[in-house]
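Q: Structure tokens for this one, please.
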Amino acid sequence: MNARYLAVVIAIPFILNGCGTWVKPGATQQDFSSDKYQCLQESQQQKGYATVNQWGGSAFSGASTNGNLFASCMNAHGWYLQR
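A: Here is the predicted structure, written as tokens:
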């Protein structure tokens, strides 16, 4: 596994959480889970790359979460990040 890819995968939960807590007055844990799931689905972006050199090549294809889109979606659902 590519070390850069692994670093991104490990960093995603911290980026999405922003070292804070998502808050929405009157909301339940189920409300949070539902909104978070929907926002994660909406903020996924396909990523891919390929490299080739004289010794061979490699390729990566997958999805990553756009943190700004995720935060905007959560805000649109009434959540705000409390630090």
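A few notes: Residues 3-82 form one domain. The chain has a mean pLDDT of 85.
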